Amino acid sequence: MLLRAYTLRASLREFVHNELDRKIKILVLDNREWEQIRYLLTLLKPFKDWTTALSKTAGVTITKTWYVYSRLLAHVDENRTRMSLKAIKWKQDVGIALNACQDKLKQYYDSPRTGQGRIYNLATILDPSNKTNLYRVSLLGNVRRQQ
User: Fold this and answer.
1) How far is CA 11 from CA 4, 21, 27, 60, in A?
2) Average pLDDT by stretches of 10, the chain with 147 residues
3) Which residues 6+ apart lie within 8 Å of 28 measured at CB?
4) pTM of whole model > 0.85?
5) Looking at the DSSP assignment, which residues form a beta bridge with residue 143?
6) Please, are residues 66 and 120 in contact by the beta-carbon 8 Å criterion?
7) Which residue among 47, 61, 98, 133 has the highest number of C-beta atoms inside a 10 angstrom radius?
8) Which secondary structure element, helix H or strand E, spans residue 96, and what is its range?
């Protein structure tokens, strides 16, 4: 819905400005608010992409969970660090929100040795298409040296 609003922002702005009702006119967003929406869209894009990709899959997706969580955690961590260094207050607030996002992902991602993390880990290893190939890539996407 945010993407649609961002794409149609010029039309939305025109519609609100042409509206006679004052209650609707206060809903117009300024350029700063549209910039905030653009930031949010950039931050949320990987979540949308993975959700769409996994939703299109007809088969079992638990074997992909480990990889998806790893990619999403790396994305959140990279942006969390970057946003916390910003001087603008709302960008710092986004960094704080990303801390909560990271905590929530870690709650489900867990350690590969305990809880749900163990299930994702085992499912990944048991998938013949993955085997241990997935573990040759680190959490940050760097290829580990083959021994």
Assistant:
1) 11, 17, 13, 42
2) 91 81 79 92 94 84 80 92 87 91 82 67 74 54 38
3) 12, 13, 16, 17
4) no
5) 137
6) yes
7) 98
8) helix 89-109
